[in-house]
Specification:
The protein is α/β, with parallel strands linked by helices. The protein has helices spanning 6-16, 26-32, 51-56, 87-103, 133-143, 145-149, 176-180, 200-208, 222-225, 247-250, 261-276, 291-304, 314-319; strands spanning 36-40, 58-68, 71-74, 123-129, 155-156, 161-162, 166-172, 188-193, 240-246, 280-284, 308-311. α12 links the parallel β10 and β11. The radius of gyration is 20 Å and the shape is globular. Bound molecules: 2-acetamido-2-deoxy-beta-D-glucopyranose.
């Protein structure tokens, strides 16, 4: 556990995050850091978007994007956007630069990822489409071209998923039809609805299929029914990477500071359903306060087999070992 111990993570942090140069040191930092299954929620709000997360080993970052004049601007609210803060300038170009530096001397033909200590680990770039999903699609597709032409993207080739240093996943205003349009080459994957993975959504639709008007509040997340299939068997690694849902919306707050049996059973059913379909599980909106509850939930989620912890406080996530995890030695939090 040497290189992985919380202490070494903290020393890396102390030496770099607070006073390190903005350029140049990134590679040496990533050299020392082992990737962890942490997803940097609203990553663009950090002091140094992308780099702060990479330095701590977070192997998944999230950017919210809006379509403005044929470009993808990054920000949480439309009013806070700026022309300089684009998906390309904040994420695609820096990732390309890191990967080019990692690979310029590579003679083996193997393409290295962003983490020196684990070069086969793919960095997940989650692009949350805040609006206009179908109009964003061709723009996003085109902006990924520099990564695509270097063969840096994970892709589905019609039969298999070939993993690359960057896996692009879309969430938010996404349409299944966009993702699966090309049957033989896909390099943008869905964030599938985790709330459908226990099968209850399909069962509920079935139940109401005799009625003309399905009461909207009887269908989980009714707005997305039109865009994303309710049948969980439609989802596979050929079209999706993550399966996620809001923790508060789907599971709810742990009243009495512990999850009830019903809540735990729902978590287990969702995780089982997603894993049976080859998808990675991530809950977002896990209560962040009080810290005791948050830490309890992180431990429960890791134990139950969640694949990524979606967090705002990446330092806290990187500092602790939130295991052990069910399922054996190779499925630990730090793996
Ligand atoms: C897809 O990738 C797999 C694994 O690399 C390979 O065996 C297969 O031949 C590829 N299929 C096509 C159609 O290229």
């Amino acid at each position: 556990m040497d290189a992985l111990s919380p202490d070494s993570a903290i020393s890396v942090l102390a030496s770099v995050v607070f006073d390190g140069p903005l350029r140049g040191d990134t590679l040496s930092v990533a050299d020392a850091t082992s990737p962890i299954s942490c997803h940097s929620h609203n990553d663009y709000w950090r002091l140094r978007p992308l780099y702060s997360a990479l330095e701590l080993g977070c192997s998944s970052v999230e950017a919210d994007v809006w379509l403005e004049d044929d470009d993808l601007l990054v920000g949480h609210l439309k009013v806070s956007l700026s022309r300089e803060q684009t998906l390309s300038t904040m994420y695609i170009a820096p990732i390309l630069e890191i990967l080019n530096r990692r690979n310029h001397a590579s003679k083996t033909g193997v393409i290295n990822g962003v983490f020196e200590s684990d070069p086969l680990r793919s960095l997940i770039l989650l692009v949350d489409l805040k609006a206009d999903g179908q109009a964003i699609w061709p723009v996003l597709n085109q902006q990924l071209e520099p990564l695509r032409e270097h063969n840096y993207l994970t892709y589905f080739n019609g039969t298999d998923v070939v993993e690359g240093p960057v896996t692009v996943v879309v969430s938010g205003d996404t349409w299944f039809s966009d993702v699966v349009r090309n049957p033989t080459h896909r390099d943008i994957f869905l964030d599938a609805p985790l709330q459908y993975m226990d099968g209850s959504a399909a069962a509920m639709l079935e139940m109401y299929s005799d009625y003309d008007d399905v009461p909207a509040d009887m269908i989980p997340d009714s707005a997305s029914v039109l865009q994303l299939p309710v049948d969980r068997d439609e989802y596979s690694p050929a079209n999706s990477y993550y399966a996620s849902v809001s923790f508060m919306h789907s599971i709810g707050y742990p009243t009495g500071s512990r999850l009830s049996r019903t809540q735990l059973e729902l978590i287990r059913a969702q995780i089982r359903g997603a894993h049976e379909r080859g998808l990675k599980v991530r809950y977002w909106g896990v209560p962040a306060w009080p810290l005791g509850i948050r830490n309890y939930l992180w431990r429960v989620l890791v134990r139950e087999g969640v694949d990524y912890l979606s967090v705002d406080d990446i330092k806290a996530a990187a500092r602790g070992d939130w295991g052990p995890r069910k399922g054996g030695w190779n499925s630990k939090w730090w793996a």
